[in-house]
Design goal:
alpha/beta; Archaeosine Trna-guanine Transglycosylase, Chain: A, domain 4; Rossmann fold; binds S-adenosylmethionine; Transcript variant X3; SAM-dependent_MTases_sf; RNA methyltransferase activity
């Protein structure tokens, strides 16, 4: 059952992560037993969702209390049993809703198997979309009650009728399609294949709920926008922007006054940025499909408003870097090799070079990732400080996460200026009596934020 599962990784990746969490500096500071305990806790908590859902409220359009009230009413009409909605005590545009789980759900004899990614989405309140189904009972028909399992190692054969491999139970649902439709249809498969009625973790449904007023976003991602501190009238660059959660937050914090340039190198993802901006009624966002490594040019400026840009074009730059994503929760399995995981550091450095050149003197650069490795976080900060003497580390506001992690040779003073969200330091699912509000800042995805000033 998912309540006891750990994050499943290739052995070489597990060993790599262990070497990070049990690095020499860390062992000297906390001892072997504590370091190993934290590492094991990390693997466990990564496979479980945080104990609350976080939404960012469009306070550029409507006051928070009114959004909170509207959300209550909307969820009531969707027959969600009295759900608690709590404003974050320090972040003025965040509402938190508790997740109920792991719940005691009894397993049924009919089994549906889905891929690990789909399984993770189910732990966050999604239904099973038909293309995600890998195996189901031979005679499954609409209306059948089934137990849903996530295939952790990607070993289940598509179209199988059962699977005995490494799988994790994620809850019960009702089939909305017959087996023949799922596996024998000539047309592209769309729609819900199994509607989850008894999930292991129950979260409020957010599909189409107040789309212009609430935006599902992890708490550390909301913190990034505040740490960047955009001001009305400024020109901001978001270098790796899709689907645009942080871009839209930046524009909202600027009251939609100024210009937010959003770049992403994948064309259809850029469309998502535009859609999100439109849904949230934000006009100051200009999104372009572009490789940000090449976003700076010394050639005379062109007449177009898009990239590439001359050096020192922006007041603030956000580099929310492509990364190995190992802090994402819930994540029951990652099939990547060590080579793939280590491939991000060089790309992040190329992007960082462009970021520093594009930033005006006196401007702010925020670097963030949703991963837990030192190579993509603290080591990048140490590299940046030695490569760019013009950069200094800045304090962050709000600072609700932990400080940076030992192991990259940074001083304690430098580590204090970094913000690392480390769920392994506080995660304990048996602590259900601790009020939500006391748990939220420690029970997040794994995330990292560094803020620099260009002098
Ligand atoms: N900031 C986004 C948000 O909050 O919604 C999430 C960004 S995600 C961590 C990283 C993004 O970087 C991906 O959408 C990916 O397509 C994009 N990306 C990767 N390499 C890039 C490059 N060289 N130039 C621009 N975008 C890139």
């Amino acid at each position: 059952m998912a309540g006891t599962a750990d994050f499943s990784l290739k052995p070489e990746v597990t060993e790599y992560l262990r070497s990070i969490f049990l690095n020499k500096e860390m062992l000297a500071a906390v001892g072997h037993q504590e370091a190993e305990c934290r590492f094991q806790k990390l693997l466990t908590c990564l496979s479980h969702p945080p104990s609350y859902t976080c939404v960012r409220a469009s306070t550029h359009l409507v006051p928070l209390e009114e959004i909170q009230r509207k959300l209550h009413e909307e969820l009531k009409t969707r027959e969600v049993a009295s759900v608690q909605i709590v404003p974050h005590p320090r972040i003025a545009d965040v509402l938190l809703l508790p997740v109920d789980g792991p719940r005691p759900v009894e397993q049924l004899s009919s089994e549906v198997v889905v891929g690990a990614q789909c399984g993770s989405a189910l732990l966050r309140g999604a239904h099973v979309f038909a293309p995600g189904i890998i195996a189901c009972p031979k005679y499954m028909k609409v209306g059948d009650k089934v137990s849903v399992f996530s295939d952790l190692e990607g070993r289940c054969t598509r179209g199988a009728t059962s699977f005995q491999g490494n799988k994790v139970f994620v809850g019960n649902g009702v089939a909305e399609m017959n087996r023949s439709h799922i596996f024998c249809s000539d047309k592209p498969l769309r729609g819900v294949g199994v509607r989850m009625v008894d999930p292991l973790y129950q979260s409020p449904p957010f599909d189409g709920v107040l789309p212009s007023l609430v935006f599902l976003q992890n708490l550390p991602s909301v913190v990034v926008g505040h740490v960047l501190g955009p001001q009305p009238g400024e020109r901001i660059l978001d270098m790796c922007a899709a689907p645009g959660g942080k871009t839209c937050h930046i524009a909202a914090l600027m009251r939609d006054q100024g210009e937010v340039v959003a770049l992403d190198r994948i064309r259809n993802k850029v469309e998502r940025i535009r859609q999100n901006a439109q849904t949230l009624h934000l006009q100051s966002i200009k999104a372009f499909c572009f490789n940000s490594v090449d976003a700076v040019s010394d050639d005379p400026p062109q007449q177009t408003e898009g990239p590439p840009f001359p050096p020192e074009s922006f007041d603030r730059v956000l580099l929310d870097a492509p990364c190995s994503g190992l802090g994402q929760r819930p994540n029951m399995a990652c099939s990547w090799s060590l080579k793939e995981i280590r491939s991000y550091q060089p790309l992040q450095r190329k992007l960082f070079h462009a970021a520093v050149r594009l930033l005006k003197r006196g401007g702010v650069l925020v670097y963030s990732t949703c991963t837990v490795t030192l190579a993509e976080n603290e080591e990048q900060v140490a590299w940046a400080l030695s490569t760019f003497p013009c950069l200094t580390l800045e304090p962050q506001e709000p600072h609700i996460g932990a400080e940076g992690m030992l192991g990259a040779g940074l001083s304690l003073e430098q580590l204090r200026l970094l913000q690392r969200f480390r769920p392994e330091l506080s995660w304990d699912q048996t602590e259900t009596k601790v009020p939500l509000i006391s748990r939220v800042d420690g029970d997040t995805i794994g995330f990292f934020i560094a803020k620099f000033l260009k002098n």
